[in-house]
Write a structure and sequence with these properties.
Blueprint (H helix, E strand, L loop, with lengths): L7 E9 L3 H23 L10 E4 L14 E2 L2 H6 L12 E2 L2 E7 L4 E3 L15 E2 L2 H14 L3 E3 L4 E7 L2 E7 L2 E3 L5 E6 L3 E9 L6 H9 L11 E10 L9 E7 L8 E9 L2 E9 L9 H10 L1 H7 L3 E11 L10 E2 L2 E3 L15 H21 L4 H4 L2 H6 L1 H8 L11 H13 L40 H8 L11 E3 L4 H9 L3 H4 L5 E5 L5 E6 L9 H5 L5 E3 L14
Parallel strand pairs: 1-2, 1-13, 2-8, 5-15, 13-20
Antiparallel strand pairs: 3-7, 4-7, 5-6, 9-10, 10-13, 11-12, 14-17, 14-18, 15-16, 16-17, 19-20, 21-24, 22-23
Helix pairs in contact: 1-3, 1-7
Bound molecules: flavin-adenine dinucleotide (FAD) and iron/sulfur cluster.
Length: 559
């Protein structure tokens, strides 16, 4: 690789990922320093020099790789922007109606409001497109003098011993064999006094740091769920803007934790999603087929019939909760948002926690910049997190998700106990094994049913991928690598090549000979929507996902 002309840059704070966690943190940092300086100047005290702050993101634009529900709890927005009225925040609508159903194959049983725990109540929340919210936040940051660079995929941490010194940005224009092509541009080395890892779910660099420095040695294994979502334009008059519907049960089997949502962003625009915990046991389950079955259920079909899919996407979300939080700081760096596992699985909400984690990290970063001490201890915001409403919220639901590992019924019993005792019971710390260990062998399981597709509403998987806008330059090394090709035969024999069913973008394709016998797995990496399911769910842990060059990947607009 030609690296002689690699540029470098020195700055104070480098934020990796322009998600809501990092943008909130960068904004809070600059705001905090300005407020401090105004007070200090008025009282003749020492001011803090305004730092040089850069946010980088691998997406083509801010928000291109951001996908959420989203029902937003505005608590963190109110803290960060106390000067703004709620109607000035970048939301579609306040929640006007909030229903929960248990779904059977063709019916629905409502869960009445009086028996629902308060965690599952969305009064006071707002519907939003998180991709749009992050773009709004990026503008707020830029107005504060913070630089935001897109198409910058950070692929390597710059380390000095156990201290993070910054990150290297991926080269562009390398060929499949890793040689510089005609349009080769070497990625920058960005050195910073503090690096903030807000890469979202299963962050590539965050996972490396957690692994190499043993940051999760005392924590539970992190577990994830996969969320598949479509935005669907529907005929007017069927939904009330702001209405929120959640459901559990069908199409998922009793051994799979998860649920569905239908959010009415407008009278003619709904978001439909299915979230499936990745500790599901059936290797024959096809995640996209499950999503189609959900759309065919009368609860959803009654809303979307006659409509047209406008966007598709998928993403994982960390569900391990309080007991799966890793150490949040190392020398020179902190973890925030989904990269640190800040998500409340019971509420299916992480936005407010991601924001608060970023804001609390900003307080420590400000002190570190002022004192010059950027050690792990100086940057550690865990105590402040635990003492905050965010830490208390996550603590209250600390054993909620664990019960569902054994199926829906035991999960509901334990969850009920957990919710009605405010988290006190079951007591202690319940553990969960890593998701991939839950997969049974194919011989013990049956394929999940399929349903008809069309070109407008019930889309096949490849048409859906097209709706994600995902694009990757073809002449580059594949970013979804099979580590040990020899293991693919065993993967097929024991699990019937489950990557062909758990990838929501058909990246992994079965190749057979004329007699239909397995020969290989073809990798169509340009379909990839960067959800990370393959790394998490592959039963032999034989797939490694790495960020491709900056700008590649989905191009979400309103997800
Ligand atoms: C289907 C689904 C539904 C959800 N519904 C809700 C909901 O209704 N309410 C709610 O509150 N929460 C919801 N969540 C969770 C919520 O979306 C997340 O908790 C939240 O987005 C986390 O924010 P973040 O900033 O940590 O990460 P993200 O929003 O994922 O942002 C991370 C950013 O980092 C960038 N990035 C990643 N790696 C790199 C790299 N190496 N180099 C450069 N850039 C990088 C990505 O491109 C991305 O822009 C949902 C999640 C899903 C998947
Ligand atoms: S290849 Fe992996 S990361 Fe990409 S869409 Fe498929 S499962 Fe998700």
């Amino acid at each position: 690789m030609a690296t002689n002309d690699r540029e470098s840059m020195d700055l104070d704070v480098l934020y990796i990922g322009a998600g809501i966690a990092n943008l909130s943190s960068a904004y809070a940092l600059m705001k905090g320093i300005r407020e401090h300086n105004a007070k200090a100047a008025a009282n003749g005290l020492k001011t803090i020099e305004e730092p040089v702050v850069l946010v980088v993101d691998k997406g083509q634009k801010v928000g291109s790789h951001v996908l959420s529900g989203a029902v937003v709890d505005p608590v963190a927005f109110k803290e960060l922007f106390p000067e703004l009225k709620e109607e000035e925040l970048p939301f579609f609508a306040p929640v006007t109606n909030d229903d929960i159903y248990y779904l059977t194959r063709s019916g629905k049983i409502p869960v009445p409001a009086p028996v629902r725990p308060r965690e599952m109540c969305n009064a006071g929340c707002h519907l939003a497109s998180l991709a749009e919210v992050t773009r709004w936040m990026a503008e707020k940051c830029q107005a504060m003098g913070i630089e935001v660079y897109t198409e910058f995929a950070a692929t390597e941490l710059i380390m000095e011993g156990n201290t993070v010194k910054g990150a290297r940005i991926a080269d562009k224009g390398l060929t499949k064999t890793g040689e510089p092509g005609e349009a080769f541009t070497p990625g920058m080395d960005i050195e910073a006094r503090v690096t903030v890892l807000g890469e979202g779910t299963r962050g590539y660099l965050a996972q490396q740091l957690i692994g190499t420095l043993g940051l999760a040695a005392d924590a539970n294994d992190q577990v994830w769920a996969l969320g598949i979502k479509e935005l669907i334009r529907i005929p007017k008059g069927r939904v009330q803007k702001g209405s929120v519907t959640h459901a559990f049960g069908y199409p998922l089997d009793m051994a799979t934790y998860g649920g569905a949502f239908v959010y009415a962003f407008d009278e003619d625009l709904v978001g439909v999603g299915l979230v499936m915990a990745l500790d599901y046991p059936n290797p024959m389950m096809d995640v996209h087929d499950q999503f189609l079955l959900l759309k065919r259920h009368p609860l959803v079909a009654g809303v979307i019939e006659g409509g047209e899919v406008v966007e598709y996407g998928a993403k994982t979300l960390p569900e391990g909760g309080y007991f799966a939080l890793p150490k949040l700081s190392v020398n020179g760096a902190v973890l925030v948002g989904d990269s640190a596992g800040m998500l409340n699985a019971m509420r299916l909400k992480g936005i407010h926690l991601a924001m608060k984690s970023g804001m609390l990290a900003a307080e420590r970063i400000m002190m570190a910049l002022a004192s010059g001490d950027t050690s792990a201890a100086a940057l550690d915001y865990r105590a402040a997190f635990d003492a905050s409403w965010a830490g208390r919220e996550l603590h209250r639901t600390r054993n909620y998700r664990q019960g569902f590992h054994h199926g829906l019924l035991p999960g509901m019993m334990l969850a009920g106990m957990h919710m009605f005792t405010g988290g006190a019971l079951p007591a202690g710390r319940m553990k969960l094994p890593a998701d991939y260990t839950a997969m049974k062998t194919a011989g013990r399981c049956r394929p999940t049913p399929k349903t008809k597709t069309d070109q407008k509403l019930y889309l096949d998987i490849l048409t859906d991928v097209f709706k994600s806008g995902s694009v990757h330059r073809e002449d580059q090394a594949c970013h979804c690598r099979i580590l040990e090709p020899a293991l693919l035969k065993r993967d097929h024999k024991e699990y019937a090549s489950p990557s062909t069913r758990f990838c929501p973008a058909e990246v992994y394709e079965l190749v057979t000979d004329d007699s239909g016998n397995f020969t290989d797995i073809r990798i169509n990496f340009s379909n990839c929507v960067h959800c990370k399911t393959c790394e998490i769910k592959d039963p032999l842990q034989n797939i490694r996902w790495t960020p491709p060059e900056g700008g590649d990947g989905p191009r979400y607009k309103q997800m």
